[in-house]
């Protein structure tokens, strides 16, 4: 079987990009597009080493582990300690899942292929087959991650919001409002709604103010005064504080009371709980 270098590079480069994107989505770790593209290029180049006959099995395995760790550190430079291990584990799990889906699709379409050094190469390759195979694997894993995140989101109904403005810091009891879709029209930041009583505990005279338009169900719209805090962090019982970039809108009235009679200080935007499946664990 003749293996064309450009097809080999394209297959593994596209596959590497999708694996890195899914790893970022599942873990919730930040990464820029230039780093993702660079990581996918390295994955494409790595494919040529798989067919190097001089590598022993243990040396090939060691090289795979080192290469995977290097790509993860390159694409997610902010990770430390356990974060690196999580990202590496998810990177491998997504790789295995995508490989299984591709092999299953080959069996379904009666396609041929060869294996070498732990790699599976598809014969009679075309761009259409590359696109369909990658799209199928991407769709399956993406849909599964969406399902898991949706189930987790249902359990995240309460969280604390720690806000710093000037020299003062206030920790608020927050409720995740799934009907809150407010965003700052200029910056696109999610908007959390609090009361004047809470704002008075900060230093509003030092804040940057903005206007947030809103529209309620069955009600006329209006404008809310908002402030941009110096910093904010979301705190949940099972995770470490996570920095969030938000706008605090001020409501003149009291916030709704919870089912158990609990009074909340802030209504959190639903986007704040949409971190990765493993984020903050």
Explain what this protein looks like in three dimensions.
Helices cover 43% and strands 22% of the residues. The protein is an alpha+beta fold and 281 residues long. The chain has two domains: 5-154; 156-273, Beta Barrel (Cathepsin D, subunit A, domain 1). The chain has a nine-stranded mixed beta sheet. Strands 1-2 form a two-stranded antiparallel sheet. Strand 6 (208-214) and strand 7 (222-228) form a beta hairpin. Helix 1 packs across helix 2 and helix 2 (33-49) runs antiparallel to helix 3 (57-75). The two termini are 47 Å apart. The mean pLDDT is 79.
Helix and strand pattern: HHHHEEHEEEHEEEEEE
Q: Tell me the Rg in angstroms.
A: 24 Å
Largest sheet: 9 strands, mixed
Strand order of the largest sheet: 6-7-10-5-11-4-3-8-9
Share of residues in helices? 40-55%
From the N-terminal CA to the C-terminal CA, the straight-line distance is 47 Å
Tally of strands: 11
Share in β-strands: 15-25%
What is the number of helical segments per DSSP (H or I, 4+ residues)?
Answer: 6
* Shape annotation: elongated
Class by SSE composition? alpha+beta
Number of domains: 2
Assembly type of the shown chains?
single chain
- Average of the residue pLDDT scores: 79
Low-confidence stretches: none
């Amino acid at each position: 079987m003749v293996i064309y270098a450009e097809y080999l590079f394209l297959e593994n480069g596209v596959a590497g990009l999708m694996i890195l994107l899914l790893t970022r989505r599942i873990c919730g770790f930040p990464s820029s597009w230039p780093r993702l593209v660079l990581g996918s290029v390295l994955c494409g180049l790595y494919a040529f080493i798989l067919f190097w006959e001089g590598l022993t099995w243990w040396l090939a395995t060691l090289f795979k582990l080192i290469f995977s760790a290097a790509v993860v550190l390159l694409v997610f430079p902010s990770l430390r300690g356990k974060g690196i291990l999580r990202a590496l584990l998810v990177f491998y799990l997504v790789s295995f899942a995508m490989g299984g889906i591709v092999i299953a699709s080959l069996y379904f379409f009666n396609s041929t292929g060869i294996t070498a050094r732990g790699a599976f190469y598809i014969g009679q390759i075309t761009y259409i087959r590359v696109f369909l195979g990658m799209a199928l694997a991407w769709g399956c894993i993406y849909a599964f991650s969406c399902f898991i995140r949706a189930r987790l989101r249902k359990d995240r109904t309460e969280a604390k919001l720690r806000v710093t403005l000037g020299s003062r810091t206030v920790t608020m009891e927050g409720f995740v409002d799934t009907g809150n879709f407010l965003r700052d029209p200029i910056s696109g930041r999610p908007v959390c709604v609090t009361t004047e009583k809470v704002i008075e505990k900060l230093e509003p005279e030092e804040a940057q103010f903005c206007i947030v338009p809103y529209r309620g169900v069955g009600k006329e719209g209006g404008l809310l005064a908002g402030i941009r805090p110096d910093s904010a962090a979301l705190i949940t019982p099972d995770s470490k504080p996570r920095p969030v970039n938000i706008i605090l809108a001020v409501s003149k009235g009291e916030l709704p009371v919870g089912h158990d009679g609990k009074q909340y200080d802030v209504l959190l935007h639903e986007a704040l709980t949409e971190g990765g499946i493993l984020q903050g664990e």
